[in-house]
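FAQ

Q: What does a record look like?
A: Structure on top, sequence underneath. For example:
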């Protein structure tokens, strides 16, 4: 799709908590081993937000402050904040207004967007539209999740996977480089395979939901695994095709970090060498909406103006999709 007015990522920020939970500590919590976790997921350790006084808004503010410091932009210049999360501070009120307040985004409006592990890509697409329409000049997108607050640390199917963190990007108008195209999809038939059953309007909190552990993440890992590989491969291929790109044209692939075996399989399907695929799951685990912006933050020194990036994600819902962008303003 050709656009005249593009949105480009012009600054990046990130935050991970200092507390490390490594596989050897998890060995003491559930029946698992470092070898199993490393060989089945690629994860060595993840970060945990320990302080009970702090939550998602705290990490989002930290990532935004890092971004503002890197860009030299005053917080009052920001027009809007799109905050992708599945772990808001509270069910109500939304978290974005708290973040705007605490980060000093005094002239911004902001809202939460929940698309699970695909949240950052959905938020990026939404924010890009605000720039492309000409309505806004500076929009921040944050992907942030405090997964440790919704994980059952007696469930070895889930507790080995997730970590906490936040990544932020600034979008500004651009003529040539920027977010060129998105292919985003949903498949509601997948909703039962990765979910928190209790606490929503369908199954509100009660003594019963608490006793059943329905306030924790539950997943059918195998089904999610297979669907993730197929969906990330298919949306990436379709996106490349409709932009007349060969996979060799892509400089960097930035996949959602859920499992190294998923990332390897998608790279293999797309025939992209792993040297072009950015991976930090070993250090941060699956931080849900934060994985892609945390990768952009972690590896930003690698990107040169004109580099072509392919981002791809898959998450609960199912939600999934891919984005093609050209780095630089
Ligand atoms: O961001 C999107 C959300 N999530 C994902 O994308 C996650 C997708 N799924 C996965 O990453 C993988 O399915 C898991 C890592 C969750 C599980 O790996 P798997 O290779 O699919 O293992 P499995 O569920 O097929 O289990 C294989 C065996 C089972 O034992 P049996 O039945 O063969 O005796 C499990 O009970 O491994 C056992 N197992 C474990 N063993 C040691 C499952 N979890 C563990 C564990 N430690 N933590």
């Amino acid at each position: 799709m050709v656009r005249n007015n593009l949105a480009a990522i012009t600054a990046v920020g990130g935050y991970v908590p200092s507390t490390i939970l490594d596989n050897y500590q998890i060995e003491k919590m559930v029946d698992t081993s470092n070898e199993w976790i490393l060989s089945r997921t690629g994860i060595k350790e993840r970060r945990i937000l320990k302080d009970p006084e702090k939550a998602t808004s705290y990490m989002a503010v930290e990532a935004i402050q890092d971004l503002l410091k890197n860009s030299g932009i005053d917080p009052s210049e920001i027009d809007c904040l799109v905050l992708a999360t599945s772990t808001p501070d509270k069910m109500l009120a939304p978290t974005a207004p708290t973040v705007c307040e605490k980060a000093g985004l005094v002239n911004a409006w902001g809202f939460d967007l929940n698309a699970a592990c695909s949240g950052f890509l959905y938020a990026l697409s939404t924010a890009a539209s605000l720039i492309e329409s000409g309505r806004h000049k500076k929009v921040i997108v944050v992907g942030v999740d405090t997964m440790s607050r919704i994980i059952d640390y007696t469930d070895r199917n889930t507790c080995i996977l997730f970590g906490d963190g936040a990544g932020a990007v600034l979008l500004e108008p651009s003529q040539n480089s920027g977010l060129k195209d998105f292919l985003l999809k949903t498949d509601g038939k997948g909703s039962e395979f990765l979910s928190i059953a209790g606490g929503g309007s369908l199954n509100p909190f009660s003594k019963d939901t608490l006793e059943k552990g329905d306030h924790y993440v539950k997943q059918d890992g195998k089904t999610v695994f297979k669907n993730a590989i197929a969906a990330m491969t298919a949306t990436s291929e379709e996106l490349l095709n409709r932009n007349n790109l060969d996979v060799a044209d892509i400089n960097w692939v930035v996949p959602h970090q859920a499992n190294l075996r998923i990332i390897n399989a998608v790279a293999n399907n797309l025939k992209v060498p792993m040297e072009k695929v950015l991976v930090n799951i070993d250090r941060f685990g699956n931080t849900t909406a934060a994985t892609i912006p945390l990768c952009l933050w972690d590896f930003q020194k690698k990107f040169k103006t004109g580099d072509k990036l392919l981002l791809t994600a898959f998450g609960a819902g199912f939600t999934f999709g891919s984005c093609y962008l050209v780095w630089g303003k």
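Q: Is there anything notable about this one?
A: The chain has two domains: 6-177, 181-280+301-326.
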